[in-house]
Amino acid sequence: MLWANDHKKGIKIRSPLSRYLKEQRKDLDLSGEWQPQFGNIIAKDYAVFARFKDIKNKDKTSEGFLYDYFIAGIRGLGTWGATWYLDRNYKQIPIDDNEENDVQILLEVIFRDDTIYDVRDVSDEPASYFEKENSINEIRKKIQKYKETRHID
Length: 153
Known about the structure:
The chain is of the alpha+beta class. Strands 4-3-5-6 form a 4-stranded antiparallel β-sheet. It has helices spanning about 15-25, 75-90, 125-135, 135-150; strands at about 1-5, 10, 40-55, 65-75, 105-110, 115-120. The protein is built from 4 helices and 6 strands. Helix 1 (about 15-25) crosses helix 4 (about 135-150). The chain is elongated, with a radius of gyration of 18 Å.
């Protein structure tokens, strides 16, 4: 995905999800049915949440214009995280007082222990942040820290 912010136009955002899964599942038997241990992992993905005023529709409601919403993850985890963010953190969505402006935010989704653990707005991060977060060394550090907090070998 390409993302534009104040730091740079066209920052390449890649999902580190497959790297997280590959690193944590290499010692697991993945054949057969789903097992609870498959969810005892940490993983990360990215998503976009956007809201655009519907200016083509001339029919305003009594409360103003209608809005179109767009939610997309790079992978499924990102999409799930974006909807989680909308459901649980809607007050953090940067909508100005007059609610007339469009909103576009880049979200970082953290999955941990079978659930969405956290979703945060990373729209203003520089390209170097995403490069670091997608590096195998950084991913291994985060996995190790997770294992230490869970007392997993």
